[in-house]
Specification:
The protein is about 25% helix and about 25% strand. The chain contains 8 helices and 13 strands. The strands form 5 sheets. It has a 4-stranded mixed β-sheet. A 3-stranded mixed β-sheet has the order 3-7-6. It folds into 3 domains: about 130 residues, DnaJ domain (Helix Hairpins, Orthogonal Bundle), CATH 1.10.287; about 60 residues, HSP40/DNAj peptide-binding domain; about 80 residues, Sandwich (HSP40/DNAj peptide-binding domain), CATH 2.60.260.20. α2 runs antiparallel to α3. It is of the alpha+beta class and about 300 residues long. β4 and β5 form a beta hairpin.
Length: about 300
């Protein structure tokens, strides 16, 4: 292991903040994700990282400058067997020499939190330092999805801010606020990249609405269809189907189409489609209808329950 100051390209008198800046610059230039397949740069990155564990922390740096530890972070021999005297004599308070646990005083934690989203402490048996940087930061994105695409499931191609394009599978039945995780598509890290977290925003539909896994729609029917009943065409999330309107149907009557709602997850059954009928009169006056309606008897019983005392 070379002198850590030399590895980082700084002088022994360099301020602690400037050592950190030098390391940040090198870490970004040498990061393995930016130099895939380059073994020489990968080794250089490890060397720079190990050097920073020594002089990037004030306490470790002070011990190195005093000659208490070497460039690998290992204890220098102090007396017998690589031990140094403790406060209670030659053997009291002894601490392990080379080959023992590396005590990371936290010098790398701050920098890796900044660059790569934190790190996990580790143990090292000698050269190479003792830190184990964690994965990179997760990145969060928002994606608008149409109601039918969310209900049926689809695939969308998205372009990340760095210009990279990805195909994203939108699972059937996804709802607003739910997230899709794309593993390894976040910020780069020394050991693994973070994930891309895509939060879905489902856009409203002109006539469909969702109620759990059920779907609801209000469907206009003519006065003739309401009086005489018959077969009409109704929309579902998967296309048009024929449904039967019972004779004498009133506005508000609801037809249930089993299994025509949102597909259930796993073994759960699909939801249902509820078609609420809405009787509509002709948009323009119809003399024949007016004449026919005039022959109908008045019926106040429809409003019998609406009396206010």
């Amino acid at each position: 292991m070379r002198d850590p100051y030399e590895v980082l390209g700084v002088a022994k008198t360099t301020a602690q903040a400037d050592i950190k800046k030098a390391y940040r610059k090198l870490a970004k230039e040498l990061h393995p994700d930016k130099n895939a397949g380059n073994a020489k740069i990968a080794e250089r990155f490890k060397e720079v990282s190990a050097a920073y564990t020594i002089v990037g922390d004030e306490a470790q740096r002070a011990r190195f400058d005093k000659g208490e530890i070497d460039a690998n972070g290992a204890e220098r021999a102090q007396g017998f067997g690589g031990y140094r005297p403790g406060p209670n004599g030659p053997w009291g308070g002894a601490r392990r020499g080379p080959g023992g646990p590396f005590e990371d005083a936290g010098g790398t934690e701050d920098i890796f939190s900044d660059l790569f989203g934190g790190f996990r402490r580790g143990r090292a048996g000698g050269a190479g330092g003792g830190f184990r940087p964690a994965r990179g930061e997760d990145r969060k994105y928002a994606l608008k999805v149409g109601f039918l695409d969310a209900a049926r499931g689809t695939k969308r191609r998205i372009t990340l801010p760095d210009g990279k394009s990805l195909d994203v599978n939108i699972p059937a039945g996804i709802q607003s606020g739910q997230q899709i995780r794309l593993k390894g598509q976040g910020d780069a890290g020394p050991q693994a990249a973070g994930d891309a977290m895509i939060e879905v925003d489902v856009e409203p539909h002109p006539f469909f609405s969702r109620d759990g896994n059920d779907v609801r729609v209000e469907l206009p029917i003519s006065l003739r269809e309401a009086v005489l009943g018959g077969r009409i065409v109704a929309p579902t999330i998967d296309g048009m189907v024929n449904v039967s309107v019972p004779k004498g149907a009133s506005s508000g009557a609801t037809l249930r189409l089993k299994g025509k709602g949102i597909k259930g997850r796993g073994e759960a059954p699909a939801g249902d489609l509820y078609v609420k009928l809405k009787v509509m009169l002709p948009a323009t006056p119809d003399a024949a209808l007016d004449a026919l309606a005039a022959t109908w008897p008045e019926d106040d019983s429809l409003r019998a329950g609406f009396t206010v005392e």
